[in-house]
Amino acid sequence: MPSSSELPAPERVMVFDLDDTLYLERDYVVSGLTAAGDWARARLGLDRLGPLMRERFEAGARQRIFDDSLAALGQTATPALVARLLAVYRQHRPRIALATDATRYLDRRDAGTAVAIVTDGFLDAQRRKLRALDLFRRGVRQAVCTDRWGRAAWKPSRRAFDHLEAAFGLSGASFTYVADNPSKDFVAPRQLGWHTVRIVRAGGLHAEVRAASAGDEADRIIESLDSLD
Ligand SMILES: [Mg+2]
């Protein structure tokens, strides 16, 4: 990954969240459940587990999908088995693609604008998503996985945002953060004086989430990255 110091200094930095901002997180979940189901079929002979887990997710289940699906097939969901399924899920190679408006944005941005990413989530999984989306080849300068510093650095922590200000040698209003979840995404960037934009995608897992307080909501709400300046 090129370090920002080897490249010309940008005038401004557009920082994006990853899940449900640049691609649809549900595609990742389906991809991961398929990988876990394939593992269960090959290792345990459980042909129905993958389809059943995907059906539960599509029906709205967000918790205990492994446990409940195993139980529905008459299997004991031992902690070791659930941990193994979770490891396969987090370590699979995701079959995901950038949203078409995200591709258009990365292709049309001007030369004075650098692009970076701040994403929460388990380090292994987030790194595999970044690779699958080929974001560095598309000109993303810095991708910060908050989990590299541990769980305490996940949003709403300021850690990743402070890190980017130092890395680019810019501050405050030179930055814009574009993300989808007002319960955590905009707290730190607002404290630092960044511009904030919430994207509400059809099919986004947090499309219905409301900010805990008006002060946590973004300055602006859009439905497509085509609306970004
Ligand atoms: Mg997100």
Briefly, what is this?
This is HAD family hydrolase. The chain is of the alpha/beta class. It has 8 helices and 6 strands.
Report on this model:
The chain has helices at 25-44, 49-58, 65-72, 79-91, 100-108, 123-132, 159-168, 187-191; strands spanning 12-16, 113-119, 140-145, 175-179, 195-199, 220-222. The chain contains 8 helices and 6 strands, in the order E-H-H-H-H-H-E-H-E-H-E-H-E-E. Strand 2, helix 6 (123-132) and strand 3 form a beta-alpha-beta unit. It folds into 2 domains: 4-24 and 96-227, Rossmann fold, CATH 3.40.50.1000; 26-91. With 229 residues, it is an alpha/beta fold. The longest helix has 20 residues, at 25-44. The chain binds magnesium ion (MG). InterPro entries: HAD-like_hydrolase (IPR051400), HAD-like_sf (IPR036412), HAD_sf (IPR023214).
Write the layout of secondary structure elements.
Blueprint: E1 12-16, H1 25-44, H2 49-58, H3 65-72, H4 79-91, H5 100-108, E2 113-119, H6 123-132, E3 140-145, H7 159-168, E4 175-179, H8 187-191, E5 195-199, E6 220-222
Parallel strand pairs: 1-2, 1-4, 2-3, 4-5, 5-6
Helix pairs in contact: 1-2, 1-4, 2-3
The protein binds magnesium ion.
Magnesium ion binds at residues 17, 19-21, 179-181.
Give the overall average pLDDT: 93
Uncertain regions: pLDDT < 50 for 5+ in a row? none
Task: Determine the strand fraction and express it as a percent band.
Answer: 5-15%
By DSSP (H or I, 4+ residues per run), the number of helices equals 8
CATH topology of the largest domain: Rossmann fold
If you compute it from the alpha carbons, what radius of gyration comes out, rounded to the nearest whole angstrom? Answer: 19 Å
CATH homologous superfamily caption of the largest domain: HAD superfamily/HAD-like
Q: How would a crystallographer describe the biggest sheet?
A: 6 strands, parallel
In terms of structural class, how would the helical and strand content be classed?
alpha/beta
Helix content: 25-40%
